[in-house]
């Protein structure tokens, strides 16, 4: 079974409160999502392998550590996942970025795929799929399916807010995928929105409605 990590760092929790607040406007919402994505990227990269290199400081020769050439891929689920990409790339600028376009049919709540574009060396990369919301889990499961179908072997899923239903759906369909979240909320409402959640992530990020 995949592991579920809740990032309870005070800075993440503080910023998430303002992301949730309905009085937070688009500009600030976007900036906060970007900042939280950076903080989460710091935590999610904790297990990256290191190797030693030799350098010279102004004082002496030294053996020091660098990240061991890991090939990473960041995959936002369109649209709202886009809001998390730049924040992650600030810390891991060499990562390649793929895109998976899905929208949730408002009646059935089932995901509809409309776009997939991935780095060419899918089998060799470690992927982080990002989306602010894990609600029913339909979109996350479909995005992981889409990546695996094209040969991906190593996948993590990172979101801001998850509902228990979404976590269970990913765990059941993809027990090899670890889930990283900033908050695990109470439940879904009758329209499939996370309670208390933050509302519609895509609309709040892009100012649409
Ligand atoms: C939202 C969100 C997730 C999905 C989560 O996207 O960004 O992708 O819903 O819901 P689920 O877990 O029940 O599948 P939405 O479908 O609203 O598309 P958008 O980002 O284009 O607005
Ligand atoms: N998608 C969102 O944007 N918000 C939710 O609460 C659920 C799905």
Automatic annotation (TrEMBL):
Cofactor remark from the record: Binds 1 Mg(2+) ion per subunit. The magnesium is bound as Mg-PRPP.
GO BP terms: UMP salvage; uracil salvage
Binding site for 5-phospho-alpha-D-ribose 1-diphosphate: 79, 104, 131-139, 200
Binding site for uracil: 194, 199-201
E.C. code: 2.4.2.9
Root EC class: transferase
Listed pathway(s): Pyrimidine metabolism; UMP biosynthesis via salvage pathway; UMP from uracil: step 1/1
GO terms under cellular component: cytoplasm
Purpose: Catalyzes the conversion of uracil and 5-phospho-alpha-D-ribose 1-diphosphate (PRPP) to UMP and diphosphate.
Stored PANTHER family: ADENINE PHOSPHORIBOSYLTRANSFERASE, URACIL PHOSPHORIBOSYLTRANSFERASE, CHLOROPLASTIC
Family membership: Belongs to the UPRTase family.
Name of the protein in its database record: Uracil phosphoribosyltransferase
Organism encoding this protein: Geobacillus thermocatenulatus
């Amino acid at each position: 079974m995949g592991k579920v990590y809740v990032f309870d760092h005070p800075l993440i929790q503080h910023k998430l409160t303002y992301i949730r607040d309905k009085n937070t406007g688009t500009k600030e919402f976007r900036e906060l999502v970007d900042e939280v994505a950076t903080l989460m990227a710091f935590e999610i990269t904790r297990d990256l392998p290191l190797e030693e290199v030799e350098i010279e400081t102004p004082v002496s020769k030294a053996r020091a550590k660098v990240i061991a050439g890991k090939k990473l891929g960041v995959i936002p689920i369109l649209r709202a996942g886009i809001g998390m990409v730049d924040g992650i790339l600030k810390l891991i600028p060499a990562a390649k970025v793929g895109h998976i376009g899905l929208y949730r049919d408002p009646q059935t709540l089932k995901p509809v795929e409309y776009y997939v574009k991935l780095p060419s060396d899918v089998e060799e990369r470690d992927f982080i799929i990002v989306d602010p919301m894990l609600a029913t889990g339909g979109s996350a499961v479909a995005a992981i399916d889409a990546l695996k179908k094209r040969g991906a072997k190593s996948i993590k899923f990172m979101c801001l807010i998850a509902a228990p239903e979404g976590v269970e759906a990913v765990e059941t369909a993809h027990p090899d995928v670890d889930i990283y979240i900033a908050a695990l909320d109470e439940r879904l409402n009758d329209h499939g929105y996370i309670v208390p959640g933050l509302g519609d992530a895509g609309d709040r990020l892009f100012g649409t409605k």
